[in-house]
Design a protein that fits this description.
With about 210 residues, the protein is an alpha/beta fold. The chain has helices spanning about 35-45, 75-90, 110-120, 165-180, 200-210, and strands at about 5, 10-15, 20-25, 50-55, 105-110, 130, 155-160, 185-190. It has a single domain, classed as 3-Layer(aba) Sandwich (Rossmann fold), CATH 3.40.50.
Length: about 210
């Protein structure tokens, strides 16, 4: 899979710009890099006509504290991360050539939390999210300001033994998303460490193939 440099510290792989029939934005976790997300795209396998765009966080982190801390404690870094994600979505869409139904955001850990926060702040901009071990930002019980995410589908994964994203947070996130009208596929794995497993990749592939 060829990898190209794109503007604004983005990495690109897959189908060429202007020829893609669908596109995905890849968001890395804390301490990781866009290159590792390009590697994850390679693990997903060949998806015909798929273009990948991967932005990078300054210093390898999208926000400084834990996702369950008050949202204000992670500002202005969180809003900066959402803005960078929006730039990547614009690039993935080729400035609107590809529609929201042809776009996906795929995030792991911190990147997965950013994917969810992006969907809340920009409802309808992207219709498919793959949330590998992530949760909604803010303390338990935080109510999103977004009224509806109807028409959005989310693959949400987690583990019963993950110290970074507790199982309770994963399940609460699924409940909140469903109340917002999201079509949620929830997968909680037993004993799975803080990684993206082959089972999760297979679930994601089945969703991305139908973009």
């Amino acid at each position: 899979m060829g990898v190209l440099e794109t503007p604004r510290r983005l990495r690109e792989a897959g189908a060429a710009r202007g020829r893609a029939r669908r596109a995905g934005v890849l968001l890395h976790g804390r301490g990781h890099t866009p290159d590792e997300k390009v590697d994850l795209a390679a693990r997903l396998g060949i998806l015909d006509g798929m273009r990948w765009v991967a932005p990078g966080a300054d210093l390898g982190s999208w926000y400084p504290y834990r996702f369950w801390d008050p949202v204000s404690s992670n500002e202005p870094f969180l809003s900066d991360a959402i803005a960078r994600c929006d730039e990547a979505v614009s690039e993935a869409s080729e400035d609107g050539r590809l529609l929201p139904e042809q776009l996906a955001i795929i995030g792991f850990s911190q990147g997965a939390c950013i994917a969810l926060e992006y969907a809340l702040r920009h409802p309808g901009r992207v219709r498919t999210l793959v949330v590998f071990t992530g949760g909604l930002m803010g303390p338990p019980g935080t109510k999103p300001a977004t009224a509806s995410l109807a028409g959005t589908r989310v693959l949400l994964t987690g583990s019963d033994s993950d110290d970074w994203i507790p199982e309770a947070s994963t399940r609460e996130t699924a409940d909140v998303l469903r109340k917002l009208g999201v079509e949620v596929t929830l997968r909680v794995y037993h004993g799975r460490p803080h990684v993206v497993s082959e089972e999760e990749l297979a679930e994601a592939r089945s969703i991305l193939e139908h973009l």
